[in-house]
Design brief:
binds flavin mononucleotide; NADH Oxidase; 4-stranded antiparallel sheet; alpha+beta; globular; 6 strands
């Protein structure tokens, strides 16, 4: 699958098969994701693999679609608001790389913002000055949701003289 195909095939998956996903495979996508752009080579991402005990406590209403692998993606703090924003942007680029790598391999990812809530940060032992980019569930899709059409990009463009 080339990059254009992976971009267009990626969906936020809501329901996964029970088939296991090899940790090595996930690590290979995380490794690839770390080639995301990041200003001053801060490499601000950190990954927390979420085990069953923590997962239950997170109490997600759909159990992250029963995804067999669950991880939290964190972005490290910085000494200024600008640098912190840049870290978050870099970590979000990491997330996109990761999703595309998983999609190209025939798997899928669900992205949940549940981890940002104060009590869930505490459950995941996230230090106070870190940003939680998301909780990502990974697995083989049981259902692939239809594409959600996007606004033509020409409607979001302007030109300066
Ligand atoms: C920062 C961020 C947070 C998100 N949080 C959630 C979430 O909590 N629950 C959810 O169902 N989807 C979440 N999503 C996924 C979006 O809902 C999804 O990408 C969007 O509906 C478009 O669908 P698609 O990804 O299948 O194209 C999140 C996406 C981003 C970028």
């Amino acid at each position: 699958m080339d990059v254009m195909d992976a971009i267009m095939a990626r969906r936020n998956i809501k329901k996964f098969k029970t088939d296991p996903v090899a940790r090595e495979q996930v690590l290979s996508w995380l490794e690839a994701a770390s080639y995301a752009p990041n200003h001053r080579m801060t490499e601000p991402w950190e990954i927390v693999f979420i085990g069953p005990e923590t997962r239950i406590k997170l109490n997600h209403k759909a159990n992250f679609g029963d995804a067999p692998v669950l991880l939290a993606l964190l972005s490290q703090p910085a000494s200024s608001q600008l640098a912190r924003d840049e870290n978050v942007i870099a970590a979000a680029s990491f997330a996109q790389n990761f999703q595309l790598a998983a999609t190209a391999a025939g798997l899928g990812v669900t992205w949940s913002s549940l981890g940002a809530a104060a009590h869930n940060r505490e459950l995941m032992e996230v230090p106070g000055d870190y940003d939680v980019i998301g909780i990502l569930g990974i697995g083989y899709p049981a259902e692939i949701p239809p594409v959600k059409p996007r606004t033509p990009i020409t409607e979001k463009m302007r030109e300066l003289p």
